[in-house]
Amino acid sequence: MGTKDKIKPFFTSSGRFLNEISSFLVFTLLDILDFVLCYVYKMADFFMEAEFKPCYCWPEKEAITSYNGKILVSEQRESRTLHLTWNKLQLEEISDTLYTRPSLMSDISKSSTIIHSSKEPNRRAGSVRSTYTVNSTSVRMLQERVTGPKQTFPIPRWSDCDCKTCTSWMTSCKNTLYVKVDEPKDNVQENVLFIHGFISSSAFWTETLYPNFSKNAKSKYRLLAVDLLGFGRSPKPDDSLYTLREHLEMIESSVLEPYNVKSFHIVAHSLGCILALALAVKHPASVKSLTLLAPPYFPAPKGEQPAQYTMRKVAPRRVWPLISFGASVACWYEHLSRTVCILLARNHRLWDFLTKLITRNRIRTYLIEGFFCHTHTAAWHTLHNIICGAAAKMEGYLDEVKNTLKCDITIYHGEDDELIPVECSYNVKSRIPRSHVKIVENKDHITIVVGRQKTFARELEEIWKKASG
């Protein structure tokens, strides 16, 4: 073994050790800072909005009991029955990662409550009663959704942007997602639905692929790129929990129903892949082809909770690489991530102006617009309830797709993707052997599309042509 062969492993192991040590120190400080910010925002919300807003690290707990289609809410000696059904509450879709995130301060603040259930017989009715314990914030938000908003029209929170782009939905009679449509002048032959990833928007597709499709494709396909609930120009309701069901229902009511879409191709990126799979399972006979880019599928080892395992894989609490550090801050810290949203998303017009001024680059400009146009409530809940919370459903979705869908399934993944590793695409293939995995060399999580849009547009056209042949 040569000298170089001996030196390389030494530097590699040393780098890992330094990353581990620095990560421990940095995230210990962030644990403390997030704990302090919890109380800072409590006071800020009270002074700005005249009420204390609940958060997922607040120690107050509420118990919900399901019995005969009713929900009994118990809170500090006071209880009341709400005439709700599980179809409305959908507690099972609320990820426990929202409020169970081990940290230095979790034991001190007593902030963690694990969802648990127990069944006990009701002797009088001869039935079974199920008891669920959840975090009080989830309960309150669900109650507000059922009882309705306090104002006729919602108003933006003090920590959210109040520009026209972010608030136009508040005074509109239509509570639907923003959809960018590019369709033929004559009869539409086929439909293509594009679903973007986390903290992105429809511009991820419309600014890259739309201009690069051939004339033949544009004369045949109706292209529908949607801004997901809480992102881009779509509604950003403060009382939404942004569950998988809510996202799917909004896509159906905003795209499939109004545009009378009976069959369609799906192209999805990152988080959007989870929604694409769920949509395909719900409408198996309608999907003509399924194209997934960097699907976040992390099969949990036996004995591991899928949501918690996925959270640790997506957000490993490491300072390097930087994309992992950013994901860890966004996923592990409710109040730090809110601070980031105040600095960036609330002031997205400023950052958009500076980006245009400095770069003069339209590609970077639209990425900045999509990255910053959301609220903390939308980003926080979507991250946990979709990427983490849907982890337990992924195997079932993939099996359904394998057994029920007859269409082609193509998976693209950037070789240099540091956020969602290439192994995730091979994990999907292990569940759906007939799927095709294409690794794109020297491309990462974003450049798998941006920078190769002409090539990718042609590849998509070939996929659709083959599916329709």
Uncertain parts: 75-88, 107-129
Shape: globular
Helix-strand sequence? HEEEHHEEHHEEHHEHEHEHHHHHHHEHEH
Strand order of the largest sheet: 6-8-7-9-10-11-12
Determine the mean pLDDT: 84
Structure classification:
alpha/beta
Count of helical stretches: 18
The largest sheet is: 7 strands, mixed
**Gyration radius, rounded:** 23 Å
Measure the end-to-end span.
Answer: 56 Å
Helical content band: 40-55%
User: Strand tally, please?
Assistant: 12
Strand content: 15-25%
Folded structure, characterized:
With 469 residues, the chain is α/β, with parallel strands linked by helices. Helix content is 45%, strand content 16%. The protein has helices at residues 3-49, 86-89, 106-109, 136-147, 164-167, 203-206, 215-218, 244-256, 271-282, 306-314, 322-332, 334-343, 348-359, 362-372, 376-388, 391-404, 423-431, 453-468, and strands at residues 61-67, 70-75, 78-82, 117-122, 127-135, 179-182, 190-195, 221-226, 264-269, 287-293, 408-414, 436-440. It has a 7-stranded mixed β-sheet, with helices on both faces. A 5-stranded antiparallel β-sheet has the order 3-2-1-5-4. β2 and β3 (78-82) form a beta hairpin. α9 (271-282) packs across α16 and α13 runs antiparallel to α14.
